[in-house]
């Protein structure tokens, strides 16, 4: 079942009225009318609209809203200084032409879970926060999880200042244009020290829950994954007058490398994708001088990932050598395997088993998340909501209304046990 193209299929009236109203009010922000996909990139107008939406939802619930030095938004119930806070949330930014659920489902479900806890009349024993992490997808500046990497100190201010978008605008310039002070960015250990647990609910980006017949699952681990930039430099020339034997065409070497990446991934049981390319001068009738391709590679274990990366680079260098192409390979980002903290993950399993009487499945994922970035600094865990087609990073991304409701209830159960007992 896929959501109707265009309108995010989202949860229908059966979802709590507040969930449905939130979903509708968010759905129009940064959406491409043609494809129905989303274009919510860091520090753009759509991002500002998402931030305003977040602030309004928080203030409507009498939460104290703040934006931290790295542009992450926090909506607090209780005094953060009391420490040992329970935090939930996700991100609102998207990949180019992304789906309606990746990120927003976690944020909307967090507000809806708080509504549910208030309906249950529980009293909070620990501070609670709902977070919107900035620039999780890295769609504009090429690095994923910028907000959480800065906060956890995994991304230095110097490296962040060096990030540029396709128009050459730097991250600090973009932040400034959006009204934020880029000079303030940096690690925020005091903030992390006040957090006792972070639970991120996210639409599953795969079909494990669809295959197991479960509405909700718990993350076991995130595969090691990274991004490598391949620069193939050849010789610009006339497409119409240059004999084939006289060419040094980098597009050919790029194409051979893409095929090699598929082969290496199949051999290693991994995944490898060249999803982004830039060509100079990018003229129909011009043999390129430079072809730049970005490789996204992921594998269940480090050894398999290393094999893929080494295999692709070796093949690329061999093809480049033969064709007289100069090749530069740069590792732009890398996230080692995330093995979610067992204590919190097992506690979520127990809570949900006690509440629902069923064992909620535990599953790995190849998708990166802020919960993964922060897992080295604070206890983190993830809840997944069934995605019947597994499709993500696409306008066709979908989660059925009943499953979204099940996700909210599971999150409310977890938050109640963690923050109210
Ligand atoms: O790329 C990822 O895995 C995530 O969606 N940022
Ligand atoms: Mn994503
Ligand atoms: Mn996401
Ligand atoms: Mn995430």
From TrEMBL:
InterPro entries: Amidase_Cbmase (IPR010158), Bact_exopeptidase_dim_dom (IPR036264), Peptidase_M20 (IPR002933)
Transmembrane segments: none
Biased composition, class Low complexity, residue ranges: 1-15
Annotated residues for binding of Zn(2+) 2: 102, 137, 393
UniProt KW Zinc keyword: yes
Binding site for Zn(2+) 1: 91, 102, 202
Region span, Disordered: 1-16
Top-level taxon in the UniProt lineage: Bacteria
Co-factor(s): Zn(2+)
Binding site for allantoate: 227, 285, 298
Family of the protein in this entry: Belongs to the peptidase M20 family.
Full protein name: Allantoate amidohydrolase
